[in-house]
Amino acid sequence: MKPFLKEVAESLIQQSGGNLQHSAIIFNNKRPAAYLQSHLASIIQKPFWSPSFFTIHEFFALSTNLKIADSFTQFFTLYQQYNKLLRLAGGDGMELHKFYPIARIILSDFSQIDNDLVDAGKLFRELEDIAEIDYQFDYLSDEQQSFLKDFWQSYSEGKQKKQQEQFIKMWRRMPDLYHAFHHALKEKGLITMGQVYCQLARGEETVPDFTSPFNEGKLVFVGFNALTQAEALVFKRWQKEDKALFYFDTDSYYMNDHIQEAGLFLRKNRDKTGLNNALGESTGFIQSAAKSIDVYQTQGQTAQAKILDEALQKDYPLIDDHDGPGKMAIILADESLLLPVLQTIPTHYNVGGESRALNLNVTMGYPLLASSIFGLADLWLTIQAQMVEPDKESVNFKEVEAFLSHPLTGISERTRDKIQFKLIEEQLVEVPAARLTGQKGLFALFFTKISSAAMATNALQHILKYVLEQQLANKTLKQTETDLFVAVIKELNRLHDALIEHLKEGDDKKELTFVLSLIQKALQGIAVPLSGEPLEGIQVMGLLESRNLDFEQIYILGVNEGILPQVSISPSFIPDSIRRAHGLPVIENQDAISAYMFYRLLQRSEKISLVYNAQTDDTNTGEPSRFLRQLEYESGYHFNYLQQQQNISTESKTMVQIEKDPQVMAILNKYLSGETRLSATALTTYINCPLQFFYRYVARIDEPKEVAENVEANIIGLMLHWMLETFYRELMKADPEITKARIMEKRKTIADLSERAYAKIVFNNERHQVAHNGMQKVVLAIVQEYANIILDYDENHAPFEILALEKKDQISFNFEVNGMPKSISLYGIIDRIDQKNGVVRIVDYKTGNDDLKFSSLDDVFDTHGKKQNKALLQTLFYTHVFEQANAKEWVEPNIYSVRNMRKEGALFMEGKEKAKLNGARLESVKGEFINLLSLKLGQLFDENIPFTPTTVEASFTYSPYITLCGM
To answer: By C-alpha distance, which of 96, 114, 90 is closest to 185?
Structure first.
């Protein structure tokens, strides 16, 4: 079927007699110009003078000598004029960061007011009247109250009256602000695009003869749909003056049916504005032939892109047909799918066994947000935002690590490792900026604190220029990245110029914070076009870019309700009822525009594939667009519904076991020779999971060290142990007899001890001065509370005598391996040994959720059971080592579990009866322990028994070896 632009080309040649050079061709966007030129060339087939091509904004801008003000200039100008009005009314100026979100809405409303030729004074007076009515009267109907609640929905009930008073005041100054804003721009030689439209519609253009170069030809407007009131007035005038031709891309399917929203604006252009379509009456393309539409239902957002690889395979031959431009297009109703689509489409395809390069042209542009350049800029903005406070001269270690590992910084591996080692060694949660800037080069640029808002844009430019030069020197930069660098530097230049001219008010700190956020917002909107051939291969574009273009084969992705059409509208201070009264855009306008763009894509396409996401989540209903349902109901097309099949399977667990080969046995034999000692922790690790014992004690795979921003549980345990050791050691210097009174007096030093403990454990220096952050203060409070729980118990247990603290003992333990006698050194460090009434106690401090109850010792030693008790094993281990090393008997194991001891005490309890483990029963359990320990050690050193993982998954919950164990 003949493309719309080819029909336009044929008509233009016929109308102009081939003298196209005198005409101006105006589109909504730049994209169609290349297609129309191609069609003109294919028809004329000889050299010719080309017409001039413009977008509507470019053409209308010719009507004024003033320069179009950019968004930054408009914002700062509005800010200055708003504050002038506030001060004239006796108020204080509004701060920049508070005004910015309001300004965006005001500027959008001003633009719509100008584009649709609305009397700003009258409109804002009506808004003031509405606000006054709502403020003064409480007897409005439910419907009226509902409307007003919607209008004030961004404010809480309690503050509604106050906010309304402020809005009434704002409405009163809005007409003055509107005129002051435009006047201030005009004094600078600037103008908004909305004012250009407004002046042109009213015949007030400063260059009234800007159309004269085309007097011998025509002003040709191609493919327009929804017109502003200003455009409609200008177009109607030029048509009446016989200056203009209009080519509307229409179809009788929606033009002749007034229920069809796709034809809403075209019918308005024809019937109310009176614009004539140079192509004549609408043709019925949509229903001229039976069509089959493939509808792909996917499970997931990015899955929509993944179906393309398979679906396109059979369509690649179409790309080789060069008979005219535009054979195949992928239309993204949901533009967030651009990157998944680019990652899916291959660089080559096969035709008859021959590999051919795939031409791909992306109209939408590659977003800066998806690049490492934005990541680097955003990291710098984050760091500067952290250092806004006057006394803040440090950077969080996470940002430093992100800088070191960023691909664009070019930091050498040696430098990176050196700095990371220092971070870990000194536990630098906050890294002094001076230590970083001292590294010179990019470090100095990146971590130098900026002190004013005016410096921000220049500082970031210097960083990006440095990185750009570095990348160019290394020849590692791609063309797209180069284009992004240039685009970012240009945008920062524009923002810098606006800041220098306008940023003269406000508090420096707040200004700087605002400017940093403004830079981030400015960068987020940057995109650069990807290289490609617009007339060949596969075209990838959004719905807006597809205007005027036709393709034989189209894939439309994101055909979901809520996306096509969009359900959200731009924020506005103008209520819906007022918008309707003045002819300003409302939600139905957006629906009609989306409907038109969707239907016109179907008009001349021969093969149509629609893709939608059927998965329901917080952002998606899982429903296809209502446009699809409408087509299905009324078009008569055949629909093939294809559901994406995704095989879902759980990854099977890998059975990992390590055989005790000669190399492994050589390490284990060091235990038997006495070269290596077995600790209580190593024993409980083996009982808990033999494979984890192998990784930790045989393979010696340690957990990677890192900076602890928030103190981990093991650090809290170490702090508590150090505090209690120091607490009692200082008491023991005077007298090992501990009384309640001495404990009570010494407890006054707990706060100081906790701070010394933190410095000792984290920095290995108890006198190290630390400026504790909020989370660290919480940790100190937790450790102090844990210590108080133990000291409360000790006060009630006093008096007692401390025999030793952190006592280290070692014994030789005999056992058998397959009937052969073996010996091993058992080693333990006991937290505390004390004595009361002739009973010697082993005291083990625990900060975890250790249980004092156990069912039986057999269960405790069962690797694959769920009733293990690590605390019991360790204290029995310590008790046995102490008894043997010091020739003691009847030593009693106690566990000070801070989470349980207030309710359950310090003695272990056995069985359902919860019998306390002491006296004769304890001695019996000690014998069982020795027997079971001998059996377990026999297994450990049996070369025929491999290291295998436990079957209890809970044992891997916090294990650093979880992936190595196949879990």
So the answer is: 114
Which CA distances in Å does 338 have to 295, 304, 376, 480, 620? Answer: 20, 11, 22, 15, 18
Q: Are 114 and 229 in contact (CB under 8 A)?
A: no
Q: What is the pLDDT of residues 655-714, one digit of tens each?
A: 788 999 999 999 999 999 999 999 999 999 999 999 999 999 999 998 777 776 665 667
Give residue 381's pLDDT. Answer: 95
d(CA 799, CA 740): 6
E strand or H helix that includes residue 429: none
What's the confidence (pLDDT) of residue 131? 55
> Would you tell me how many other CB atoms lie within 10 Å of the CB of residue 448?
18
pLDDT (tens digit, 9 = 90+) per residue, 155-164?
444 444 555 5
Give residue 372's region: left, alpha or beta (phi > 0; psi -120 to 50): alpha
Residue of 855, 848, 856, 841 whose CA lies nearest to 893: 841
Residue 311 C-alpha from the chain's centroid: 31
CA dihedral for 529, 532, 535, 536, sign (positive or negative): negative
Q: Which residue has the tokens 């290995």?
A: 764
Looking at residue 264, its amino acid is L
Where does residue 517 rank: exposed (0-12), middle (13-18), buried (19+ CB within 10 A)? middle
- DSSP β-ladder status, 553-557 and 219-222: unpaired
Instruction: Categorise residue 966: left if φ over 0, alpha if ψ from -120 to 50, beta otherwise.
Output: left
Cα–Cα distance for residue pair 758/864, rounded to 1 Å: 37
Average pLDDT over residues 409-436: 87
Residue 544's CB is within 10 A of a number of other CB atoms, namely: 14
Residue 66 corresponds to which amino acid?
L
Res 427 pLDDT > 90: no
Q: Give the per-residue pLDDT at 333.
A: 93
Quickly state the pLDDT bin for 320 (edges 50, 70, 90). Answer: low
Is the pLDDT at 322 greater than 80? The verdict is no
- Answer whether 853's CB lies under 8 Å from 835's CB: no
Please list the residues that pair with 351 across neighbouring strands. 354
Query: What does the alpha-carbon distance between residue 709 and residue 730 come to, in Å, rounded to a whole number?
Result: 31
Note the pLDDT tens digit of each residue in 372-384: 999 999 999 999 9
Task: Give the count of alpha carbons within 13 A of 309, CB side only.
Answer: 13
Q: Which two tokens stand for residue 257?
A: 């049916």
Residue 677 has what pLDDT? Answer: 95
- DSSP helix, strand, coil percent of the chain (3-state; round to 5): 50, 15, 35
CA distance 236 to 239: 5
Element containing residue 416 per DSSP (H, E): helix 413-426
> What residues does 120 pair with on adjacent strands?
none
- Tokens 């204290």 correspond to what residue? 875
- Dist CA 627 CA 597 (whole Å): 11
The residues, ordered by sequence, that sit 6+ positions from 779 with a Cβ below 8 Å of its Cβ are 710, 711, 715, 716, 719, 758
Task: Tell me the C-alpha distance between 576 and 555, whole Å.
Answer: 35
Mean pLDDT of 434-450: 91
Cis before 565 (ω within 30): yes
DSSP of 25-36: EEESSSTHHHHH
CA-to-CA distance for 481 and 370, rounded, in angstroms?
11
Q: Cis check for the bond before 529: say yes or no (omega within 30 of 0).
A: no
The pLDDT, as a whole number, for residue 658 is 93
Could you count the other beta carbons within 10 Å of the beta carbon of residue 872?
25
The answer to whether 861 and 938 are in contact (CB under 8 A) is no
Tokens coding 625: 């667009």
φ, ψ for residue 400, nearest 5 deg? -65, -45
Closest CA to 292 of 755, 606, 13: 606
| Number of residues in the chain | 967
Q: According to the model, what pLDDT value does residue 316 have?
A: 72
The confidence score (pLDDT) of residue 323 equals 55
Residue 506 has pLDDT above 50, yes or no: no
**Contact assessment for residue 687 and residue 950, using Cβ atoms and an 8 Å cutoff:** no
